[in-house]
From TrEMBL:
Domain of life, per lineage: Eukaryota
Annotated InterPro entries: LLPH-like
Protein name: Protein LLP homolog
One GO MF term: RNA binding
GO BP term, example: dendrite extension
Pfam families the record matches: LLPH (PF10169)
Gene Ontology CC: one annotated term: nucleolus
Family the UniProt entry places it in: Belongs to the learning-associated protein family.
Region (Disordered): 60-88
Length: 145
């Protein structure tokens, strides 16, 4: 037994009616989104605000520049001496003096929230970035230190 064509034709006819009705609404919505008036006038200022066209090369350059700035900021943070910050433990009431650079307290222990794997990952990333940015003055190839 095959499919009944009668119900299929009825469904297609109803879908055509719906399509015509919704096409008008969609057209109005699109015109409103693009800034086109009822008379068909286009406001170019609004169009420039809707989207900014960038090439793949520009996007890659911006991404690379942002990563370099982040690495520079992290390197600058590593170069800082660090400050001593006093933290009072709520349960015991003891005062711990932490260094903001090393995260160690006066006894040489790390705070409970400190994750050594995370710092290892960060230092590896920084070293990799440093090697990538290194340019040897006397050679044609970039040779890391």
């Amino acid at each position: 037994m095959g499919r009944k064509n009668r119900s299929r034709k009825r469904r297609d006819a109803m879908n055509l009616i719906k399509k015509e009705r919704y096409a008008k609404k969609d057209l109005e919505r699109l015109k409103k989104m693009l800034g086109i008036d009822d008379q068909g006038n286009v406001d170019m200022k609004d169009l420039s605000e809707v989207a900014v066209v960038k090439t793949a090369k520009q996007i890659k350059q911006e991404k690379r520049k942002k990563e370099e700035e982040e690495v520079q900021r992290e390197l600058q943070e590593m170069d800082d001496k660090g400050e001593n910050v006093e933290v009072v433990n709520e349960k015991t009431g003891k005062v711990h003096i932490y260094n903001t650079k090393t995260f160690k307290d006066q006894h040489g222990s790390y705070p409970p929230w400190f994750k050594p794997r995370k710092t290892e990952r960060k230092t590896r990333k920084l070293l990799h970035a440093r090697k990538q940015r290194f340019k040897q003055a006397w050679s044609t190839a970039n040779v890391p230190l």
